[in-house]
Amino acid sequence: MTPAVGRFCGSAIGVAVALLSAQPLNRLTAQSEGSILTALPGSTRAAALGGAGAALVGDPASLFANPAGIATIRHLGLEGSYEPYLEGTAISSAAMALRVTRFTLGFGAQALDYGTEPEIVPDPSTGGRRGMATGASFHPYEGLAASSLVYRRGFAALGATVKYDRQQIGAESRDAWAGDIGMAIAVFDIMALGVSVQNLGGDLGSGALLPRRTRAGLTLNYTDPQGTYRLLTTLEGLWERDKSAVLIQGVEAGVVTNGVGLVGRIGYATRPTITDASNWTFGGGVVLGGLAMDYAYRSYDVLGGGTHRVGLRWTP
How many domains in the chain? Predict the structure, then answer.
């Protein structure tokens, strides 16, 4: 490992500890050697609802949590989001879903951009004990591409996703292929039940793996989502390899008249005390017919601020 890569890895571990730490200290390094990107919410709406996604059906980006979630899209759906993340990093995502008879095809991409890092090499005047900048730089990142196929019959849908994850740090890179499987039962617009298992496979090499996750969620609509008033709750359990179980609760409410309106969202997820991420998330959206503009916020006390995520969804 070059000194430049070592310097970047230290920064990346800091990001992972600040947000994702959910295990004893002797396991933090192991988590940082896996993937940060695949453990983050796939959409702005999901981020505002505490990270729930297994039963949020009908959104193109739901394929990142449960491939079967795109089964209820009527024709075509598009979604994208962007978030200036921690320590100068940034997260972006895009998803598309297309309905073809009983099948729905989904395509998605996510990226975690670490920005530009200066190249540091050992300083010979100090015997290599210190580093010096060469004037060059490198651009570390993690990228994910996903493709989903879903079959729906009646209320039930089954889906699978094939994904490819690549991590690039200077001249060093590693990658992995993985798969997700999921099931969803959507009873009209009243309720949805979703279950998924994520990152089957996902061997990055050197003992690093994509985080294996099992999710089960229930979403309930208390009003007609095509009417004036909106009220939805979601409850989800998430089990990740070598971590404690997480319970996620979210509420979405709003008023929409003639296709135009506002919705607000709040989420709460149980977290271990070691993490600096707030248990609470907040957000909202503007609805303009089939277009929705979403926003999500989460605070980080030690870092003295929070993260802001914005997104667009189009589901005519």
Answer: 1
